[in-house]
UniProtKB/TrEMBL annotation:
<dbReference type="Pfam" id="PF01128">
    <property type="entry name" value="IspD"/>
</dbReference>
<comment type="pathway">
    <text>Isoprenoid biosynthesis; isopentenyl diphosphate biosynthesis via DXP pathway; isopentenyl diphosphate from 1-deoxy-D-xylulose 5-phosphate: step 2/6.</text>
</comment>
<feature type="site" description="Positions MEP for the nucleophilic attack">
    <location>
        <position position="151"/>
    </location>
</feature>
<comment type="function">
    <text>Catalyzes the formation of 4-diphosphocytidyl-2-C-methyl-D-erythritol from CTP and 2-C-methyl-D-erythritol 4-phosphate (MEP).</text>
</comment>
<feature type="site" description="Transition state stabilizer">
    <location>
        <position position="22"/>
    </location>
</feature>
<dbReference type="InterPro" id="IPR029044">
    <property type="entry name" value="Nucleotide-diphossugar_trans"/>
</dbReference>
<dbReference type="GO" id="GO:0050518">
    <property type="term" value="F:2-C-methyl-D-erythritol 4-phosphate cytidylyltransferase activity"/>
</dbReference>
<feature type="site" description="Positions MEP for the nucleophilic attack">
    <location>
        <position position="206"/>
    </location>
</feature>
<comment type="similarity">
    <text>Belongs to the IspD/TarI cytidylyltransferase family. IspD subfamily.</text>
</comment>
<protein>
    <recommendedName>
        <fullName>2-C-methyl-D-erythritol 4-phosphate cytidylyltransferase</fullName>
        <ecNumber>2.7.7.60</ecNumber>
    </recommendedName>
</protein>
<feature type="site" description="Transition state stabilizer">
    <location>
        <position position="15"/>
    </location>
</feature>
<keyword id="KW-0548">Nucleotidyltransferase</keyword>
<keyword id="KW-0808">Transferase</keyword>
<dbReference type="InterPro" id="IPR001228">
    <property type="entry name" value="IspD"/>
</dbReference>
<keyword id="KW-0414">Isoprene biosynthesis</keyword>
<dbReference type="InterPro" id="IPR050088">
    <property type="entry name" value="IspD/TarI_cytidylyltransf_bact"/>
</dbReference>
<dbReference type="InterPro" id="IPR034683">
    <property type="entry name" value="IspD/TarI"/>
</dbReference>
Length: 231
């Protein structure tokens, strides 16, 4: 089965408050995007990455790929106005009869193991949406204030959201954009197809605000020291 990873890195990273979009910021000396791309390339030798970048930073993305990876495994395209439009641009580069991972370029701590679990689950169920439980209590805002809700009834959603191409491509191409489309599971559901949830990884965080860089650095350091003590 053909495998594509649409890695969306077309955002501006406003919540990071940095001039350079967060996907290019250095993490232990390498760009955030490096770690994301490496996880996918390591997961499968026959996987092609569709790298979606801000128009003005496509060259920067190419430089990262040239410096660290085999460029023959990459396709490049420009991002769109929202994440949904960036994913749609990436999907236009893929072909039918494939498994397509859609992953945030800034979820750089994803592991090859989770990527493989998602593939297996999407082969079996048509889709695989990694999710984790919430460690915090949750309250719903109401007209009069707020009310406690049962947190066991909620899951926190991650990427890579993984689909058979025959599900994802028609959903992306035939549905008109709505503001609630913050991920692909929502798009596919709006197209009338249920999605399959699976267990994600606690460390698969999305780098969004500056504190996430510190957390990611610590997790990476812990991984490096764990793999050094194995040898
Ligand atoms: N038009 C967009 C918006 C977002 N993304 C990508 O989608 C992922 C998740 O989005 P988010 O964390 O919201 O990134 P930004 O939009 O860059 O951040 P912000 O909302 O703070 O501006 C990121 O890898 C981001 O680069 C994209 O490809 N195209
Ligand atoms: C796709 C996502 O990472 C799943 O949790 C999330 O919806 C992205 O949201 P953002 O507002 O683009 O950061």
């Amino acid at each position: 089965m053909k495998k594509y990873a649409i890695v969306v890195a077309g955002g501006a990273g406003k919540r990071m408050n940095s001039d350079l979009p967060k996907q290019f910021l250095p993490l232990l000396g390498k760009p955030v995007l490096y770690y994301t791309l490496k996880a996918f390339l390591d997961a499968y030798e026959d996987l092609v990455v569709v790298l979606v970048l801000p128009e003005e930073h496509i060259e920067k993305g190419r430089e990262i790929v040239d410096a660290y990876f085999n460029p023959a495994r990459f396709l490049f395209t420009a991002g769109g106005e929202t994440r949904f439009h960036s994913v749609r641009n990436g999907a236009a580069m893929t072909e039918q009869e494939s498994i397509i991972f859609v992953h945030d370029g800034v979820r750089c701590l994803v592991t090859p193991q989770l990527i493989r679990y998602c593939f297996d689950s999407a082969m079996l169920n048509g889709s695989a949406i990694p999710t984790v439980s919430t460690k915090d209590s949750i309250r719903q805002l109401t007209a009069s204030g707020s009310m406690a809700v049962d947190r066991t009834q909620f899951r926190v959603v991650q990427t890579p959201q993984t689909f058979h191409s025959k599900i994802l491509l028609p959903a992306l191409n035939q549905i008109e954009y709505k503001e609630k489309f913050t991920d692909e599971a929502t798009v596919v559901e709006a197209f009338g197809i249920d999605v399959h949830l699976m267990e994600g990884e606690e460390t698969n965080i999305k780098i969004t605000t500056p504190v996430d860089m510190t957390i990611a650095e610590q997790i990476l350091l812990r991984r490096i020291s764990a793999s050094a003590s194995e040898v």
